[in-house]
Fold this sequence. Notes:
This protein is an alpha+beta fold and 98 residues long. It has helices at 8-21, 73-80; strands spanning 2-7, 33-38, 44-49, 54-59, 61-65, 67-72, 86-91. The chain contains two helices and seven strands, in the order E-H-E-E-E-E-E-H-E. A four-stranded antiparallel beta sheet has the order 4-3-2-6. Strands 5-1-7 form a three-stranded antiparallel beta sheet. Helix 1 (8-21) packs antiparallel against helix 2 (73-80).
Amino acid sequence: MMKVTLDAKELAKAVRLLRKVAPKRTIKPILGYCLVETDGQFGVSLCATDLEIMGRVSVWAGAAEPGRALLPLAKAEAVLKTASGTVELDAGADSQVR
């Protein structure tokens, strides 16, 4: 289970950077996601790959519960275009980000 509060603009910037690493079209859908990890203390690490190169971005987070989850990059980018203030990523026991 992971729960973290992030600045929307910082998260949007990180997602835009990772979208440059992740392939636009692939036969492996998992490559369209980024791994979001937090230890609950120092922030959040987001990672994406195209199997040749990997991108990792760290973002400061407010309140956090440790854990990891997959975040769909295309959907996150679309949602974050209009987001402001803070956003909360909440992954339940099934690791689905809500």
